[in-house]
Amino acid sequence: MRSILFVPGDQPEKLRKAFGSAADALILDLEDSVAPANKEAARRTVLAFLQDHDDAPDPPPLYVRINGLDTKLADGDLDVVMTGAPDGIVLPKAAGGSDIALLDARIAVREALHGLPDGATQILAIATEGAAALFRLGTYAGSSPRLAGLAWGMEDLSADIGAETGRADGEWTGPATLARNLCLFGAAAAGVDAIDTVYTDFRDLEGLKRECAIAARDGFSGKLAIHPDQATIINEAFTPSAEAVARAERIVEAFSLFGDAGVTALDGQMLDRPHLKAAERLLKRARRWQQETQT
Question: The pTM is what?
Answer without folding.
Answer: 0.86
